Structures are given as structure tokens and as C-alpha cells.
Amino acid sequence: MPEAPSVSLPTIAREWLRIGVTGFGGPPTHIVLLRRLCVTDRHWIEEPEFEDAIAAVNLLPGPASTQLAIWCGWRLRRTAGALLAGFCFIVPGLVLIIGLAAVFLAAHPPKVVLGASAGAGSAVAAVALHAAWGLAPASWKRIQRAGADVANTPAKTRWLTYATLGALSAALIGPWLVLVLLACGLIEVAVRLRPAAGVRALLPFLAPATSATGGLLALAFTAFKVGALSYGGGFVIIPLMQHDAVRTHHWMSSSQFLDAVALGQITPGPVVQTVAVVGYAAAGVGGALLAAGVAFAPSFVFVIAGGSHFDRMRGDKGVQAFLTGAGPAVIGAIAGSAIPLAAALDHPWQFVLLASAAVWLLVLRRGVVSALLLAAACGAAGVALGLPV
Length: 389
Description:
Elements: H1 9-22, H2 27-41, H3 47-57, H4 64-104, H5 111-145, E1 149-150, E2 153-154, H6 155-172, H7 177-192, H8 195-202, H9 215-228, H10 237-248, H11 254-266, H12 274-306, H13 310-315, H14 317-336, H15 338-343, H16 348-363, H17 368-384
Helix pairs in contact: 1-4, 2-4, 3-4, 4-11, 4-12, 5-6, 5-11, 5-14, 5-16, 5-17, 6-7, 6-14, 7-8, 7-14, 8-14, 9-10, 9-12, 11-12, 16-17
Keywords: Cell membrane, Membrane, Transmembrane, Transmembrane helix
Subcellular location: Cell membrane
Membrane topology: Multi-pass membrane protein
């Protein structure tokens, strides 16, 4: 690894704070901004090393673009740089989303706010399908590169099986989705390598599978699942959170959960900020900060503890096989999450907005943020004209 350039901590704070404030659009935007800063403009990191880091963080559970932001800080100033970069990248969006949560989850919000939230929530299921569709091609190519016929099972058949299992799990057994993702990864290891190697490959990904009940402990465990067990990040956190937040602990209603997902999409910074809205619903500002802290802590640990081992991890056949199997299951889970999200809609006009958002995203190929903002505007206007909410 080349020697890191001398970059001051105030410079890291300033630049990563700027990305945290302007990073609307999710992981693709974050990667572009980090590449422009670290590779193109400042020449702090060489292009091949940056691309390797992108591949490495995608091997980890949790929010990949957040982990990339932390890694870039780690590359420049090791632990101090990682902590500062991650903090500055996360905090702007966190502050904004907590403020918006206070408005959207208020006991008696203005009617226009109710309309805007119902409108934005209407589009969320379409956004989930759009996310799954965007991830599918790379995963499809990956499993085909792994071997056209392994253990007498064609690669395409295995991919479709994993994706189907993920979709069914997200739609039917949300809180147990993690086990299905782990199982799909381990099955792929077993058909490509020795079963013992599958167990060894799985060990770095395992986390305590205990259950927590009641209050802040339950909230912390929900956030932990989001940060430490969500392979693929982004929308795969939805089935992990929805059952806990809506059905088990009743922290929020189905429509409020849709609001949380929409807010996570339209605010800057990582999409995983959605967990802060769930925390706010459960226990106010303190709950939001607790949920965000627990959800993002694994990313700091993974990068700081494992940054120097990224190259070796990328070359490990067991890890590669595990992700080849877990990847399609994640994509299926993201697509499957659209079913409970659509089922949470209450009014016919919301389904019209859902269909319109699907056309906007999947046919016209426009952006997610614009889809959500337009849906929110339509919802607010519709309610002002007398539509039910």
C-alpha cells in the first residue's frame, strides 16, 4: 500500500462535511464525490486503490458508501481520520432527518405535511423495485463468472433460486430475513468449496443472533441488525426494520414507516439514516441518536480493524463464494420488500402515485430523489384539494 499523503484533520473534517451536506442521491452520488475529492482533484489516493476499496466495502454488511467514506479517511490518517471522516459524513444528514422526523411524526402535523408524507410514501415501493433492478445485472454476471455449472446446478438456476428465496423472505418473514441471506451465501460456498470452508467463510459475517425485547434494548438490537447484518445495505434494511418497528414493537404505523423510508432517500448522506426515524418514533431524539449510533458503529469497526486486510479478503475464495450466493438473495429481498410497502398504502390515489413513480423510475429512468419529491408535491396538492389522508 502506498504511503498516505499528509492531510490535516481539519481538511478531512471540512471536505467530508461538505460531502455529507451535498450528498443527495445515495451511494452512487457518494462514490462520485469521494472519487472526485480523493482521486481526481487532490490525488490523495490512486485510482486502482480506490476501485479496490469500493469492491472491498461491498463485501461487508452495512452501508457500503459510508464504509467507503470511512476508509478514505482511514487511508489518509488511519484511526483518527476514519473516525472524523465518518462522523462528518454522517452527521449532516442525521441532523436533517431527525428534524424532519419531528415534523412528520408529530401528533398533529399540518394537513399539507400529511399529504406530502402520504405522497412520498406512495412511491417507496417503486423505489425498492428500482433499486433491485439496478443491482441485478452485476450480480447476474458475477454468478456466471463463478462457473456455468457447479455441483451439477447451473449458475442461472442458483441465482434465480437465491433471489426467489430472498423475495419470499422479505415479503413473508421479514425479521428472519438475515438467516435466509446467510443460508444462501453458505449454500453457494458449499457447492463451490468444501463444506468446512463454507463454515470458515461464514465466520467473519456472523453476529450474535439473540433477540431483544422491550424499550431501548429492542431498539438497539433492531439498529444492530441494520448495521451489522444487512448485506447490500440500502433497501435491504426495510424488511429488517419494518416487522420490528410496525408489528412487534408498534413504534410507528405502516404509513409512518413509509415516511421513514422516504426521508432516508431524500436527505443527504447514507440511506441507513432511515433507522434514525425509527429511533425517533420509539424514543424521541435520544432514540434516534441511539439507533444511528448502533447502526453505524459496525461500519467503523469493520473498516478500522480490517482496512489493512481488504486485499486479502477480496482474494479469499470462501468470501467470494459467500457473497456470490448472498448477493442474489439481497436483490430478491429488496424487490420483495415492495410487497409489504405497497400493502401499507391506504387510499386509491396513493396507488396511482405508485404506478406513476414506477413509470418515472423504471420506464423513463429518472432519479429517485425527483420521484419522491414529485410524489410528495402531488400528495400535498391532492390533500389540499380534498383527497383523503
